[in-house]
Amino acid sequence: MDFYNFYTGREFEAYEFLGAHYSRESTTFRVFAPNAKKAGLLIGNHEYPMNQIYNGHFYEITLPDISEGTCYEYRIYTSEHSYTDHADPYGFGMELRPAHKSIVRNIHNYTFQDQKWLKNRKDTKASPVNIYEMHLGSFRKPSDQADAWYNYEELSGILIPYLKESGYNYVEFMPLSEHPCDESWGYQNTGFYAPTSRYGTAQQLQKLIDDLHQNNIGVILDFVPVHFALDPYGLTRFDGSELYEYPSPDVGVSEWGSCNFMHSRGEVRSFLQSAANYWLKEYHFDGLRMDAISRIIYWQGDEHRGANGNAIDFIKVMNNGLKERHAGCILAAEDSTNFPNVTKNVNDGGLGFDYKWNMGWMNDVLEYFKLSPQHRVANYHKLTFSMVYAYNENYILPFSHDEVVHEKATIVQKMNGQYEDKFPQAKTLYLFMMMHPGKKLNFMGNELGHLREWDEKRELDWDLRKYPIHDSFYHFMITLNKLYLSTAALYEKDYMTDGFEWLDCHQEQNCIYALQRNGESEVVCGIFNLSRETKQYNAPFKDDGEYRVLINTDWERFGGNTKESNETYRKDQMISLPPYSALLLKKSCAFFDIFQ
Hints:
Elements: H1 3-8, E1 19-22, E2 26-32, E3 38-43, E4 46-49, E5 51-53, E6 58-64, E7 71-77, E8 83-86, E9 102-103, H2 115-120, E10 130-134, H3 136-139, H4 152-166, E11 170-173, E12 177-178, E13 191-195, H5 202-214, E14 218-223, E15 227-228, H6 249-252, E16 259-260, H7 266-282, E17 287-290, H8 294-297, H9 309-325, E18 330-333, E19 355-357, H10 359-370, H11 373-378, H12 386-389, E20 395-399, H13 411-414, H14 419-435, E21 439-443, H15 468-486, E22 500-507, E23 512-518, E24 523-529, E25 535-538, E26 547-552, E27 568-569, E28 574-577, E29 581-587, H16 590-593
Parallel strand pairs: 10-11, 10-21, 11-14, 14-17, 17-18, 18-19, 19-20, 20-21
Antiparallel strand pairs: 1-2, 2-6, 3-4, 3-7, 5-6, 7-8, 7-9, 12-13, 15-16, 22-23, 23-24, 24-29, 25-28, 26-27, 26-29
Helix pairs in contact: 4-5, 7-9, 14-15
């Protein structure tokens, strides 16, 4: 480790020096505790005094014959006889809560077989990105017990076939770094380098990611660089001082009751960016979705309190360093602010993210679909407004876990009307999502038409597929996802202004919309009827020629009333649009269609 870089916030591999480093002959333990009076290594009931090294801010001890899986803590003394026992901030494993000791892990044991995947990994701006966001513990469970989970390796055999069947080419795991409280979903961490023991070991997680790559599925990890859990064995007042957090509670305590990282400290920056690098390097994650970036940009996330310049500088340095080290990695910001240039390169004055979650689009679209058809007339442009700012950033369109918890209702439940009306509207919603510029993210269970809000203690309601209305909805989602992955016009020009155009966005009284997506060599159009009445509508295509229907939300196999056929339409031809329905059509090209 470069000590100068560590103190100035430029170190990306601090975990190679700090933490517990195992070999068959001996294991070396190192901890950073600059304000401690002394430090000891606690294994079982035995305390081993640690030696001060370098400038006295670091403590080290090497012990022979330490087995993998050995539990340990650091005893950090704030006076000769006063101490607190802490888990290792850089520990590669931790016990299952409520136990909390660190565990010796050899993270270099596993041999990856995904070299081809990593070699071919590249920037995804012009590629399809369809993300399945999930919480590992509640996707499926081996029993009805809240504390029963499949391990990482077991999940591989369950998850991968499902993702491939369902048409997702990326999976995003909610935070997997160790956390004491299930209800925090991993967003309040105590072990920033420790894969949660709920689902097994570091090696099992490495194998899961390797298996996903060998099946051409990218893997994104939810990463939390803003705050940490208050538990006394964690980072809180680690060496008797505010080593990782702010000394002032005005900015030191987050809205969630956790401690905010003090991003002005070089040691804190090195801790966090080394953790980010660790997950990408040692586990082969393809990217990080960074949580609560608004709290990095503004003090406490409040624009009126002003920008936090030190934290902004931290995120720029970290993102730039990760990009230099990991070709083609994805860095995504969960940010609801209007702060500019979030997805612009650092060297061009931006924050260095690849993507930003489009929270404005998500809120407007869901609010619109909650409205009754008569109120949609006055709110018609809730669906068009997002294109006013669509090219300000490189956006991901998220229907995430946050939208299906805390009495917000599930996606299908949010749709206006009675039970039978909700499903056709949800199908139309998802077709609109696929046609709108931006990469896609959908939380687990949404594809089933889930009617129960997500609960981390229970697995998804897989029995829903026994009911025809849910099974047909799921098969619609499969078909739509696979169409997205195979239709270049839906993703090639997501962030180019010539990739999208409205064909008709002035049918306020009829609640009809028509739009076009342009690829490098193909064109697709979408026509949407969001009223409760059948509408006769003249196709507003720009060009002559035939437009072939790729998918109709009202087809019988998706639970609708329209018989499926090889329908084609021409410019100005009358189209009958059933209530709450939508069509995706592809412009025929003689040369292209020869090969279809």
